[in-house]
Write the structure tokens for this entry.
Amino acid sequence: CNMERDHRRDFPLLMNTDVAYLDSAATAQRPRCVLDAEEKFYTTCNANPLRGLYPLSIAATEAYENAREAVRKFLNAASAKEIVFTRNTSESLNLVAYSYGLSNVKAGDEVVVSIMEHHSDLLPWQMVCRQTGAKLRFIECEPDGSVDLNKVEPLIGSRTKVVAMTQVSNVLGRENPIRQVAELAHRAGAVMVVDGAQSTPHMPVDVQALGADFLAFSGHKVYGPMGIGVLYGRKELLEKMPPFLTGGEMIESVTREGAVYAELPHKFEAGTVNAAGAAGLHAALDYMAQVGFGTMQRRELELTRRAMEGMKQIPYVHILGSDQPEDHHGIITFTVDGVHPHDIGQILAADGVNIRAGHHCAQPLLAYLGHPSTARASIAFYNTEGEIDRLLASVSTLRERMGYGK
Ligand code: PLP
């Protein structure tokens, strides 16, 4: 991608539409180079990777393994063997729960999650606790979305086997103190599972510096394709874990009675892999490196500040979480007095402003904060001041259009 110009021009859909796309936390738009990389895979090296010995298949395997190396660098993992390709964050977290969780958590143990977890990082742990007889405990947050480590410490003890926490909340946008929580987990002998779905699009994520034993993210939220996700896992842990899915590609040898599984990471990649998706993810990570987190963060902060300052001028609008734009990572979840979030979403859509409305797959958090549902605008570096102003203009007319008068 040519980066000598306005980044927005790299995104074909944004160029082809006049809607204000403010739902990037749900899925980001893709730059042209990601679409090109997928097409290039199918037009130049499409063959089943890891199966054939002929040149096309070798090229497909190379594209796939190069993508793995790019992810390793992106996360600063020690080895490419620690990078498992999955479909998305949800599958990655299920892999950890089914494989690590069910083998290591026993009755009487405890699994600690935060109240901020997306259902993808909650339901798998509910399953583990249900099946093993372990207890699920919750780290709660303060009304501004911050986490008080003094309240976390007593929750993590000798019974704790797993601590699972999102690095950035998809509702509040706030970054959690993962490194400190990981230290508490490790001191108790537990593993630290990190949901990186909302952090990887916005900040450098270093699994070693964080002390993450596992970290999951989705390609489609980091400007890559849908259907490709990542699980990072510490090698010593992955080596001891049983496969999550079994079948083709993940074996060394098979007899009538049993099988010897393949080495890492292939043990966790049963069946034909999404090599084109991996190639697209590789292009997306290269693209992010070219733009740079510095540029992305500066832009996202400017736009978030503009949106939050504008919303604060509208008396019936309430933003969840911190009142500091720096704490939001482009995510602004809000309510409007007397207007149901689904009406907010529909009225904004009629004005060409695309946002999210509902429970954001984080129902326990919304219940804890006292809102059955909310509206969420989420900003990426490719958004514009004009789009934020359209959001504000539309939000400022909401109550009047719902019949409340001026
Ligand atoms: N975790 C968080 C924090 C998310 O925001 C999301 C998606 O919105 C997910 C997990 C699930 O991601 P996916 O649907 O790609 O599996």
Observations:
- The chain has a mean pLDDT of 96.
- The first helix runs from residue 12 to 16.
- The longest strand covers residues 160-166.
